[in-house]
Write a structure and sequence with these properties.
The chain has 123 residues and is mainly alpha-helical. Helix content is 50%, strand content 8%.
């Protein structure tokens, strides 16, 4: 599984991520669930044709699939101490690298997302 790391969340980095994701998808399509962070909803974002944004309601982190993934990743970190931020980053990267694509789907999937994907695929 490939990961991308950006120093902060802003419109420029989000655009870089979207362009990278679009390229990874090739001719496939993706529905990308996003919160309403300013970088995600900026009018300057050029959405690639193969990525469809799905805005979650404001102030609803419980609907964000990444929150489930973070909960899963934080469990093995519970009692670990790190001497530097870079050590923590390295450990998180190690945990990401151990995840399979199927595990990420299983951890982060919600029924409403799966239903939306099924509905979209039927067209």
């Amino acid at each position: 599984m490939s990961t991308q790391v950006y120093p902060k969340l802003n419109g420029d980095y989000f655009q870089q991520f979207l362009d990278w994701l679009s390229q990874q998808l090739g001719e496939d399509y993706a529905i990308l669930q996003i919160d309403q962070a300013p970088a995600h909803v900026s009018g300057t974002i050029n959405w690639p044709e193969n990525i469809i944004p799905l805005l979650q309601p404001p102030h609803s982190p419980e609907l964000n699939p990444i929150e489930r993934l973070w909960q899963f990743l934080k469990k093995p970190l519970k009692n670990e101490l790190f001497s530097s931020l870079q050590d923590l980053r390295n450990r998180v990267q190690q945990l990401f690298e151990q995840l399979t694509f199927d595990e990420v789907i299983s951890i982060s999937s919600y029924n409403f997302i799966l239903e939306a994907l099924f509905y979209a695929a039927s067209y």
